[in-house]
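Tokens as discussed.
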């Protein structure tokens, strides 16, 4: 009886590995969260909450927006680099190929909402609606995570829902948009990454 149960568990594990990408690392989420918090801190140094409406002044916006775009690009690049490194490391520990048909579907399902959101935010910037970009990035990122969650662990789905909710709430609290952004991309990522690490990763790191 025990042997049959073990065989069923093995079959289930093989089916799950073939249909879902299970090499996402919790450390990737933690590192992305730290990068986002550092980026939010830099942005806060450039724009104090009391003076955020000065961004409606074209001269002020022309000076600050490029710095904030550069800040966002550095945060994204840092998160991607650490994310890839930790994910590849975990896949090697699992003895899996990190780039397969499932991971390709995962990437494509995320890229479509992210690219649409990126273009949407560029349109907002072009028309001077700078502060709507903060909730918009949260909402589109959340949609991307929900869309991609069918190809990876369920925890990603709940992270995506949380990002969407934060983005929608921050639409009505413009004064605190940067705080919501820091919570969404920083704090939630660290919580998510920590849960992922203890739930899925730790058994591999202890085997090293």
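Sequence:
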């Amino acid at each position: 009886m025990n042997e049959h149960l073990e065989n069923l568990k093995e079959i289930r594990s093989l089916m799950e590995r073939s249909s879902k990408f299970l090499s996402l690392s919790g450390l990737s989420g933690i590192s992305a969260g730290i990068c986002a918090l550092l980026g939010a801190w830099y942005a806060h140094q450039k724009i104090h909450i009391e003076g955020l409406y000065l961004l409606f002044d074209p001269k002020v916006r022309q000076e600050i927006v490029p710095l904030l775009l550069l800040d966002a690009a550095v945060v994204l690049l840092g998160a991607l680099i650490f994310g890839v490194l930790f994910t590849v490391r975990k896949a090697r520990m699992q003895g899996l190929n990190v780039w397969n048909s499932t991971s390709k579907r995962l990437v494509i399902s995320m890229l479509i909402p992210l690219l649409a959101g990126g273009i949407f935010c560029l349109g907002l910037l072009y028309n001077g609606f700078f502060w709507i970009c903060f909730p918009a990035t949260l909402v589109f990122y959340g949609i991307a995570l929900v869309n991609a969650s069918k190809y990876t662990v369920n925890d990603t789905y709940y992270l995506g829902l949380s990002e969407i909710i934060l983005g929608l709430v921050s639409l009505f609290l413009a004064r605190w948009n940067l705080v919501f952004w820091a919570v969404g991309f920083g704090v939630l990522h660290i919580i998510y990454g920590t849960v992922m690490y203890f739930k899925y990763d730790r058994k591999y790191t202890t085997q090293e």
